[in-house]
Amino acid sequence: MFIHSESVIRVGHDSCVEQRPLIVACGVLIALVCLVGLCAAEPAADGAEPWPPGGVGLLDESIEASAVVSSKTAANGRAEWVAVDGPGFDRALRFTLARLPDKPWDTQVKWVATGAIAPQDVLLAGVWARVIEGENETQEGKFRIALQQSHAPFTPLMKADITVGKQWTFCPLPARVGPKPEHAYQAGALQVSFNVGMEKQTIELAAPVLMSYGKTVDLADMPQPVITYEGMEADAPWRAGAAARIERYRKGDLTVVIQGPDGKPVPGAAVSLEMTRHAFGFGTCLRPQEILDDEADDELFREHLLANFNTAVYEGEMKWVRMDRGSDADKQRLHERVSDSLDWLHEHGFEVRGHTMVWPGWGSGRWHYTPPRLKPVADAGDAETLAREVEQRIRHVGELYAGRVTEWDVINEAVRNHEVIDVVGRDAMIDWFKWARESDPYAELYYNENTILSGGAVDYKARQRAMDNIRFLIEGGAPIHGLGMQCHFGSTLVGMEKMKAILDEFAETGLRLTVTEFDVAIPDESVQAAFLRDFYTMAFSHPAMDAILMWGFWEKRHWKPEAAMFRADWSPKPMVDAYRGLLFDEWWTQESAETDTTGQTRFRGFHGDYTLTASLGDRKTTASTLIAPGKDHQRIVVTLPE
Q1: How far, CA to CA in Å, does 487 sit from each of 16, 176, 337, 385?
Q2: Can you state the angle between helices 238-249 and 525-541, rounded to 10 degrees?
């Protein structure tokens, strides 16, 4: 039972980074938090640079001529200087990675310090960066800044992994040299390297800096990381509008009539109304073993699952690749595990989403989306055979779980993964929805996409392609009911007003909306909790939204452990208080009242299931009721026994 920004990360005034308690240190390092940055800041209006004044530049003024690009870059893609319209610069080094290098530094650019550096000097390395095309779930780019020896063994002074979005951002890395004489660097002995071989991506770097502030400033006076997003402020204007919408769209009125066995009203009766389950879906992904196995952590998983969620989705067990793997006996065992865990979920009142019928790309590495056995069929241009395989897949999984899932993601991530569609033709997407409806006439059918809110919602073109796909399906007569929005966030958090505008835009299609895969993989736990609170509030306030599902909640069973609500030892992170504070405090109804002379009383509560208790003296009765969405006013008559 269910008892239950655009991101702006500012440092100082003009630059920004994100902190992560992850650092590579050596004997020459004075401890400093590692900085993982996404900085959506531009120079101040007065033209000030995004770093403190007083530093001495340590890089050759001819940035292009002094740049040293790794000789291994050509094996992974290409590097080229291109014209850009940046904040204070017009040239950038663009890396286009067609394959993932063996090591991040196999694709890199570096610059060597031209001046000497003394013990305890404070340094600032940095670069302007943006991603043109990212292939990860958050659509962000990743690279590593390393301050290190310029010769073997390339011992690092400081290095940090950086996450960057599609807008030009300045990403700094401050450090302090060690105190001993041997910690000093002669001219040419220190380099700043930018390793971009961390993702298949197209990323641009521009206007690198390496500044020495000597001993004139304290490290604490250098730009300090503060992660934020638009609308984070306690008095942000969006909050009043969200609260009004929640009151209007997520609550209803219930009139309770208490009568005696003779049908006459009972005045003065005490009536309590206690919520037991939200009508809105609050869910998570999971796997069968967490439901069926008997290890201590599995039992704790189920306890936390029951205490916090009412909706579930399988992380991978219903995907085509997973169901296609192994022998017939392996496939049967997988089905039995899924079926048994479905029984448990249904017994405990969970609704279950089906994910996913078709993920129409091939994937790469260990992540395959369509069974690899079909790749030669596609490469041969055999559209007929490939189309037949897709039809068989849809009909098989739809019929297998018909009546046992409430929704199906029929198509997943077609904006970036469309190789199957390229072979069989775009009209096939309409057929896929029709076959899904024929195979399961009960489930609502969704198009699931990751290019809408993820990554700060800065990829307008990808968002428009998603809208084009939706309109194509609707206009083509596909029986589509909803849009699933994957919401995997790294450092680029979406602003609340922007989120509202995007939800409004997609709601105009007439489709129901669901946040299908939510997580926030940032190291600042306080901002992580604040963003969860605000994101859930905005989503819950929107009338077209039906549910929000996390993509995991426990560190040991999460694809991005830092994004989990509970740590490995099950201790709660600040996100837990934020989450439960919404669901079981702000959005939870527990009220008491007394009937009037007509035997009536009235409640206003959140949509959901309730237990109603009425009593007068020794007379007492209990009933189940609900406040259902879509009904302005509901009424229940309860008979109080003699």
Answers
A1: 23, 37, 28, 34
A2: 50
How many angstroms separate the CA atoms of 589 and 602, rounded?
Answer: 13
Tens digit of each residue's pLDDT (9 = 90 or more) over 245-282: 999 999 999 999 999 999 999 999 999 999 999 999 99
Q: Give the helix ranges, DSSP H, for 215-268.
A: 238-249
Mean pLDDT of all residues in 583-604: 97
Dump pLDDT digits (tens) for 295-336. Answer: 999 999 999 999 999 999 999 999 999 999 999 999 999 999
Q: Residues 300-303: contacts with CB within 8 Å, 24+ apart?
A: 300/570, 301/554, 301/557
- pLDDT range class, residue 209, cuts 50, 70, 90: very high
Tokens of 41: 């800041």
Q: Strand pairing partners for 553?
A: none
**One-letter amino acid of 386:** L
Instruction: Determine the Cα angle at 393 with ends 392 and 394, to 5°.
Output: 95
Kind of pairing between the strands at 251-259 and 633-639: parallel
Return the HEC string of 310-350: CEEEECCCCCHHHHHCCCHHHHHHHHHHHHHHHHHHHHCCC
Quote the tokens at residue 625: 């009721």
- What pLDDT does residue 138 have? 67
Per DSSP bridges, beta strands 512-520 and 545-550 are parallel
For 150-240, strand residue ranges (E) read: 156-164, 169-176, 190-195, 201-212, 225-229
Q: What is the pLDDT of residues 604-624, one digit of tens each?
A: 999 999 999 999 999 999 999
Phi, psi of 629, rounded to the nearest 5 degrees: -65, 150
In angstroms, rounded to a whole number, what is the distance separating the alpha carbons of residues 53 and 55? 6
Cis peptide before 574 (omega within 30 of 0): no
Q: What are the tens digits of pLDDT across the range 525-583?
A: 899 999 999 999 999 999 999 999 999 999 999 988 889 999 999 999 999 999 999 99
Q: How far apart are CA 447 and CA 201, in angstroms?
A: 25
Strand partners, 603: 254
Alpha-carbon distances of 30 from 26, 174, 178, 582, rounded to whole Å:
9, 11, 6, 41
Q: Which residue has the tokens 């189940």?
A: 624
pLDDT for residue 22:
29
Q: Taking a C-beta distance cutoff of 8 angstroms, is the pair 560, 293 a contact?
A: no
109 bridge partner residues? 69, 194
Asked if residue 365 has pLDDT above 50, the reply is yes
Residue 510 vs residues 354, 434, 543: alpha-carbon distances, Å: 21, 18, 11
Percent of the chain whose predicted confidence (pLDDT) is above 70: 91
Report CA Rg, the chain.
28
Which residues are within 8 A (CB) of 166 and not within 5 positions of it... i.e. 6 or more apart? 130, 131, 132, 139, 455, 456, 458, 459
Q: Strand pairing partners for 36?
A: 18
| pLDDT for res 226 | 54
Confidence band for 224, pLDDT divided at 50, 70 and 90: low
In our burial notation (b when 16+ CB lie closer than 10 A, e otherwise), range 106-121 reads bbbbbbbbeeebebbb
pLDDT of residue 100: 83
Q: Which residues contact 2 (CB under 8 A, 6 or more apart)?
A: 276, 277, 278, 282, 306, 309, 310, 349, 350
Amino acid at the residue 174: P
CA 189 to chain centre: 41
